[in-house]
Amino acid sequence: MEPYLTDRHEAWRAQVRAFAEATIAPVAAAYDASATFPWATVRAMADEGLFGLPWPSAWGGGDWDTFGYLLAVEELARVDASHAITVSAHTTLGTSPIVSFGTLSQRERFVPLLARGRVLAGFGLTEPGAGSDASASRTTAVRGDGGWILNGSKIFITHAGVGEVFVVTAVTDRSRGAHGITSFIVCKPNVETDEAARYGLGHAPELPFTPGVRAGKKEDKLGWRASDTRELLLENAFVPDDQVLGDIGEGFVNFLKTLDAGRIGLAALALGLAQGAFDVAFRYVQERRQFGQRLVDFQGVQFRLADMATDIQAARHLVYHAAWCKEHGRPFTKEASMAKLYATDVAMRVTTQAVQLLGGLGYSQRAPVERMMRDAKICQIGEGTNEIQRLVIARQLLRRASAAQERAATLATVA
Q: Of the chain's two ends, which shows fewer C-beta atoms within 10 Å, N or C?
């Protein structure tokens, strides 16, 4: 058992793993090939309570701690990353800003719908000219009578088509730079209404839909193909004052806090991908025979397995340590970036090695590792590229070093 986890955590891991293997694994390849949103299994995940794990039961959540949520993401990704990101983006990016920065009225209005998985949520931050440099946002919010008028577009937004509740950022005072960005809650109807009606989730007609908010064309992606990714368009969208999220001008600070937590979630997803690919490869090399012996009997294969397993274990410690810091109220910006940087690089290395170990079979769609390799790549890009993670880590190191020097200087003066 991992030292960070209790027996309850391990039992929960086993429960989610059994669910994922029985319900998601058999259909993951088909959803990937058709690039269709998996409403049937999303309904099953909602019934399993996977969309509100870290939120209070009074709001329809699961009352789980950080680890309970991350273990679910990890185990889902072990069989399919598209399903894992559906839960992760909804929970960490879409719902958590409302929980963390919303008023009591906003939380009571939106969180029960989201925690039960009745509708999906998203996070509108990235723009055509504001990717890694999120402070360069061009989306504007102009004061109107009783609210704000938003204009702009967000790109590569998970759930932009199938979701109905979104936290978006817009510039309310360009003269203040990053401190002139504000967050808003906007709602739009799910574009896949027939599927939503068929499975009994995905649409809540009582939501305050925002005229002028709509989804763009669905992206045709390399990986995460069963996850819905589109442009989110804001065209003279009027947002009332009671849907401003947090204080005016605090949007940039608040989305940085959201991304810190989100990076642990994406790191857990990458960890699950790596573990899933390793498991497939490990089973294969024990069964496949060449030159009169099993592949696993070759020392070169054993060394490769050892490196893969060591990478995964190191990533797991980084991810769980970052989660422990968050759970215990410790600073975790650096730890989250380290976990995201390392775990996503490991996912890319391990899935690539798994394809290599399976040879021609690994390169075909007869084995899941080629899908896992495609799914791993976006992990190095999303929620802040790994180049940005290195900047965050370095700045945190320098900040802590400067603080230590100031303390030493103060102590020397006192002495």
A: C
